[in-house]
Amino acid sequence: MANFVMVNSGHNRDDEADKLGMWLFLFTELLLFGGLFLVYTIYRYLNADAFLHASYELNVIMGTVNTIVLLTSSLTVAMSITAIQKGDTKMALTLIWSTIAFAGVFLVIKYFEWTAKFEHGLFPGMEHYNMLEPGEKLFFFLYFFMTGFHGLHVIIGGIILLFVIAAIRKGETNQGKFIFLENGALYWHLVDLIWIFLFPLFYLIH
Amino acid sequence: MAPCGFNLDIPVSTILFNSLTQNPELRTLNLIIMSENNKSRYLPGDPKEHHIVSYKFNIGIWVGLIILTIMTVLVSVMGINLVAFSVITALIIASAKAIVVANYFMHLKYDNILLKILFGITMLLFIVFLFLTATDYITR
Amino acid sequence: MSTAAIQSKSFYEEKKGLKSWIFSTDHKRIGLLYFYSLGSFFLVGVILGLLMRLELISPGETIMKAKTYNQVFTLHGVIMIFLFLIPSVPAVFGNIFLPIMIGTDDVAFPKINLLSWWLYVLGGLFALSTLVVGDGPADTGWTFYAPYSVKTGTNVSLAVFAAFILGFSSILTGLNFIVTIHRLRHPKMGWFKMPLFPWALYATAWIQVLATPIIGITLLMIIAERVFGLGLFDPSLGGDPILYQHLFWIYSHPAVYIMVLPAMGLISEMIPTFAKRPIFGYKAIAYSSMAIAFIGYFVWGHHMFTSGMSGPARVIFSILTFLVAVPSAIKTFNWVATLYKGSILIKTPLLFSMAFIFQFLIGGLTGLVIGALATDVHLHDTYFVVGHFHYVMFGGTGFAMFGAMHYWYGKIWGKMYNEKMAQISFGFIFVGFNFLYFPMLILGLMGMPRRYYDYLPEFTTLNVISTVGSWVMVLGIIMMLTNLIRSKKRGEKAPKDPWGGTTLEWQTSSPPSLHNFDTEPIVPEEGPYFHKV
Q1: Domain check: are B132 and B88 in the same one?
Q2: Among the four residues B41, C24, C217, C270, which has the most C-beta atoms within 10 Å?
Q3: C175 — contact with chain A (CB < 8 Å)?
Q4: Domains in chain A, start-ordered, CATH in brackets?
Q5: Do B132 and C242 touch (CB under 8 A)?
């Protein structure tokens, strides 16, 4: 029988531990994309002209709009933490919902961008793609792989935020205990952080 | 209930705690109660209290990020003939944006310094990976 | 006796039934789940190894065809590396003993801990399913080198996906341990009051967290290439196969330290206990663990000296490789210095530890031979390399695990093993091991290439010696396991502290109760290895 209190029990509430765990997970995500950026950098170095040429196919306006959409979604989720700290649950919920809405907008724009590429036959394996020179093939392979993988993270981030909303509704996440919201927001910012680098590397290398 | 401080000086709670710990099921229950009602654990180095970033400040950061985004687009569109220059500028601006997001939106500035150090180490590690791989390609 | 009277139930007795195990969040039960699943995969790997040795007992086709042999060595590598060595010590002994040694009742995220075991099992099932689905297991070698891995008709995608899932499991274990060590140490246990096994786990955990993602994404790229029929790493399509090797080894070289660092931690526990002396150079060992973890990230290029990497890059990687030898040597010297003038208690765990030092030394020194650029060009892809990494991985990590199984046998299962039988089986394993792998070093120097099912007749004698060695070693392993299994029933009841150990796990009952400690653990003021003589 434990006749003492274990203050360092693994079952106690420890928000800082949760946050450290989340950050460690974010490091793995960053390095996951890091591997892709590494491949990108080397192939860009080896095929500078082809990458430059291929990047003209991308739509800068759509990319810029998407960047602004993601930055704004980051703002709303950051503000939702302020809201819950102030005890304004309703405001917090509105802000998280708007983040999810922005995620939807981002994905819709991405969808239109991708369909345009599909129509040009630029998806790996399509006719036009097969006629490209090797460097451009690599560019489009990486473009679809990296933005697709990023899009997957947008979806995952959105799902996490839905769980956060459920937790706030149930009262499990509240003014006194909002680590789940903080961690969900951290994940969302990560999605933004990666896009901050994806955007110039694919759209702006003219 | 027993606070999670190391020196537990309230005898009543100790007795209560012990009576609960006799039975494993109750013990688990007790742990749940502890984690529900008690404050999060505090260790030296943790931020003393949660810093509340005001709405206004958040919006200010957002405006800054938007300006940086527009800048980088403009440099890229204008500087068509300055390929190397525009890539480097784009990366510097992107890094600046990333640092701002990490520090303010992700609260690194207000959190335990440990997180900042670890974040730095991770980024450094990535740069080393990149650098060592690049030495192979550059010198080929 | 009064302590025995108020002793609570051991963690085995709290709940019964299969469900109470496979859905348990108790770190000790999860550790045991890992132990049994890992052990099963290890035995599969051993059988595959035996088959390979049998094939090589004489030149020409003996029991299998070339393609089968390729598949067998690939599966042997995948199982032994991804399913045994990488999780091995942290997942089993780390899970069971890390929380106890730092004086807490569980890891920081018990549910994530359980999840990581489930992912491990899932990954294992995927790896095994390659046996029965489609064209059989991959025949690429465990390294999945592109472009062959993209072209071959065998089940590479499944095997690669298995490795991806296992990577996830490994990341979660590492993440859990880092947070546990940061947040859950006993309030009186500062960083430098922590035993060296947790230190080694901490260093390992950082590699698990920061290196594994790179292989994760690389493996996903291989899958994408196979699915879309493209060549990201195919030179005929503009890709660069050497870039794949870079990405692969950025993870897989640090992964070598994931395998060996925690084993070094085990040795650092066993040596002072049986020498009855505080460990020599405690801080040096702790720092050298961190140094190995850190430098280990910068040396991956030494796997690629003959791949076509640029000259300057090869020189740089060769120089960096030599740096790793320094912290490894620091550890070895410290272990030997700890034994000096100790009142040594010769028990099986110590024998395994001594064998570890001996074999790790051979493994480490042969590592320098192939870490040097000039000699590696000669020895690359020969049996010298095979001998080298088996000396480090099996002679090192494997022996440390066997040692720890005896060292903590009483603590985990509550009974003592039969010492005499254990020492005899150690003898068989040790002798068999060296007869198995030492000829490989000589064969490599003579020029026998690895990964062939056939060889020139002049290599026959040494290959026969090696194959016979494998039989002796496996006999020893069977004897050891029989002894351990029999002792569970027939052994004497284990006392709290059978060896006079000084770390916290010896302060609790054998086996420990659900919450590990019945009374407040006492963290020694002097540090973890202070023996009262």
Answers
A1: yes
A2: C270
A3: yes
A4: 22-203 (1.20.120.80)
A5: no
Peptide bond into C511 cis (omega under 30): yes
Are B74 and B129 within one domain?
A: yes
Q: Are residues B34 and B68 in the same domain?
A: no
CA proximity to C91, closest of C397, C502, C300:
C397
Q: Which residue has the tokens 């990366």?
A: B91
Predicted complex ipTM: 0.94
Q: Of A7, A85, A177, which is closest to B6 when you measure between CB atoms?
A: A7
pLDDT score at B38: 65
Does B31 lie in the same domain as B84?
no
**For residue B34, what are the domain limits?**
1-41
Rounded-to-integer distance, Cα C183 and Cα C181, Å: 6
**Best B101, B109, B123 residue to mutate vs chain A (most A CBs within 10 Å):** B101
Cβ separation B122–A11 shorter than 8 A = no
* Residue B140 forms contact with C (CB below 8 Å): yes
Q: Is B49 within the bounds of a domain?
A: no
- Which superfamily does CATH assign the domain made up of C25-507 to? Cytochrome c oxidase-like, subunit I domain (1.20.210.10)
CA dihedral A186, A189, A194, A200 (to 10 degrees): -160
Start-end of H helices in C79-109: 88-89, 95-101
Chains in contact with C, where contact means 3 or more Cβ–Cβ distances below 8 Å, are A, B
| Nearest residue of chain A to residue B75 (CA atoms) | A204
- B30-34, C16-20, C85-89, C370-374, range with the lowest pLDDT: B30-34
Residues within 8 A of A (CB atoms), B 74-113 only: 76-77, 79-80, 83, 86-87, 90-91, 93-94, 97-98, 101-102, 104-107, 111-112
Structural domain spans, chain C: 25-507
What burial class does residue C136 get, using C-beta atoms within 10 Å of its C-beta: 0-12 exposed, 13-18 middle, 19+ buried?
Answer: middle
- Identify whether B26 is part of a domain: yes
Give the ranges where C276-380 is alpha helix by DSSP (H): 282-295, 311-339, 348-371, 373-379
Would you say residue B27 lies in a domain?
yes
How far is it, in rounded angstroms, from Cα C393 to Cα C84? 11
Residue B15 lies in a domain: yes
- Does one domain contain both B59 and B111? yes
Tell whether B61 and B37 lie within a shared domain.
no
CB distance from C312 to chain A under 8 Å?
Answer: no
What pLDDT, in 10s, does the model give residues C425-448?
999 999 999 999 999 999 999 999
How does pLDDT run across C308-322, given as a tens digit for each residue? 999 999 999 999 999
